[in-house]
Amino acid sequence: MQETHLAIASIPIQQWGALYDEKEALCTGTIFQELNKPFFAAEIEKKSLNKAKPKSEEQRKREEMLSKIMEVSFVLDDLTLYLDTHCQDSQAMDLYQKKSQERKDLKQQFAAAFYPLTRDCIMDCKKDKAFCWQEGPMPWEGACV
Questions:
Q1: Is 134 exposed, middle or buried, given 0-12, 13-18 or 19+ CB atoms closer than 10 A?
Q2: Which tens digits make up the pLDDT trace of 97-128?
Q3: pTM for this entry
Q4: 32 phi and psi angles, rounded to 5 deg
Q5: 15 neighbors 21 (Cβ within 8 angstroms)
Q6: Which among 18, 13, 41 has a CA at the least distance from the CA of 30?
Q7: Residue 111 in 3-state DSSP?
Q8: Helix segments in 86-126, DSSP class H
């Protein structure tokens, strides 16, 4: 068989650039605007998936806080991937540290208001510093949406 080259891959090195805000980044799948290369054939019409019964104020607040934690966590995940190849980028490191602290604060606020999400927050959910892992509802009880 004759040796032939079918293709040669060329992958440009990613540069730091404009970033999406957290909510848009989570919906888009990247924090970097230059990496947003939508596949038009795969675009799906956005539909409201939340056609459930009306929510209590507590449930609405819980979901709002969980969404914010999820958005900040996604930014941290994307920054981690970027920093794997750009470990000297001071802008990215500064943003990573800022978002890490923001995520920690959000998880502590959530634990104080509802129940701990991770073992790091167990002692943050009660003023008396009791072990409160069992305080939160189970996912099948409807609290984690």
A1: exposed
A2: 999 999 999 999 998 888 888 877 776 665 55
A3: 0.72
A4: -95, 120
A5: no
A6: 18
A7: helix
A8: 90-113
How many C-beta atoms surround the C-beta of residue 14 within 10 A? 13
Nearest to 35 by CA among 10, 56, 14, 54: 14
Cβ 82 vs Cβ 74: under 8 Å: no
Q: Which amino acid would we find at residue 87?
A: C
Residue 40 to residues 36, 37, 63, 87, 136, Cα–Cα distance (Å): 12, 9, 31, 33, 41
H or E element at residue 8: none
The amino acid at 55: K
Predicted local distance difference test score (pLDDT) of residue 40: 64
